[in-house]
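yo

u said u wanted the structure for the complex thing, so here. seqs first:
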Amino acid sequence: MTWQMLMEMTVKGFLAELASKSPAPGGGSVSALAGSLAAALVAMVARLTGTEGDNEGMRGIQGQAGDLMEKLNRHVDEDTAAFSLVMQAYRLPKQTEAEKEQRAAAIQEALKGAANHPLMVAEECLQVLVLCMEVVAIGNPNALSDAGVASLMAYSGITGAMFNVAINLEGIKDPVFAQQAKAERDRIMSEASHLYAGIQTLVQKKLIYMVEW
Amino acid sequence: MTWQMLMEMTVKGFLAELASKSPAPGGGSVSALAGSLAAALVAMVARLTGTEGDNEGMRGIQGQAGDLMEKLNRHVDEDTAAFSLVMQAYRLPKQTEAEKEQRAAAIQEALKGAANHPLMVAEECLQVLVLCMEVVAIGNPNALSDAGVASLMAYSGITGAMFNVAINLEGIKDPVFAQQAKAERDRIMSEASHLYAGIQTLVQKKLIYMVEW
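structre next:
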């Protein structure tokens, strides 16, 4: 039962576990964590921008960012759990024909879970990226670099999740599932790339204005 | 004394602290953490590629990644400490002329520290990115997505650190310092952009080959 274990480790301990020879946790959990870090930074910038009565928008962003952070926090552990199911399925016995069939089915089922999971992470990171645009555009200018870093983390979370979708799809034999996953990937990446480019342009413009950098 | 405090928090606690109204920790510490996560993933991929006698290269990468992870771990806390010194300097008394002068000098000194610090983080993340290219190119293919995620994190660490250099330079009045910081930024960003583009092309090519994605 890995549930919540990673999130309860110290940051230092998590990094040591990540660096260890065990393939889990790996890039999937790090992608979810990148999204969590982005959501946390968005929430901070929204708070620093003021959430009093005159600033309903920022209060809304703070709440949404907090919710997305909670969801992504859970995914840090769930991604590792989904990957562990794949490894378990590969370890099932394969002596008899019946065992071989059961094992193959279990592997397919586990791989689908491991491919679906990062698609959810990517979708949530995309929602964080939407909030990043708002805090970059109208957030406290003193926290512009924080909003900018949030956008880098959210976009890395999306791209990283897609690497994990791809590598899990490698073993999936169901063409309908693969097609649907690909369509979902294309939709998310298309939205994310547009948004990310817009955010980076705006951050650069604002930084140049501030520091003639 | 914030030294080592952030790294000793639980991952969950770190995120909650990040999301809080306090401006520190912020994007600077997250950029260093992104570099640490990248270094940890590189170390894992090197370990999964095998570090027996026949694979001296991977053993070297594992060692270098471990060292860079340690350095970047320290920067997670040090960046927040550098930022706190800036805030402390702004809070110095400014009643008399002497106090005003002392305060202005302390602010300049603290801002230089806060601008120099992310330049070190960016340089270390660049060294991690160099290792990412190696593990993407010749690492265990089953861990390709992990190596890919490492490259996203390392590059985000570099870019994020540069946002922090820029925002701290805003208040720095020493043109020589600003010029040197800008030259250092340009050198690191130029190397990083080339390397990053090469890595992404290679990851995409390998993923397409693996999954016809």
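The longest helix of chain A spans residues 97-138. The CA atoms of residues 166 and 200 of chain A lie 26 Å apart.
cya
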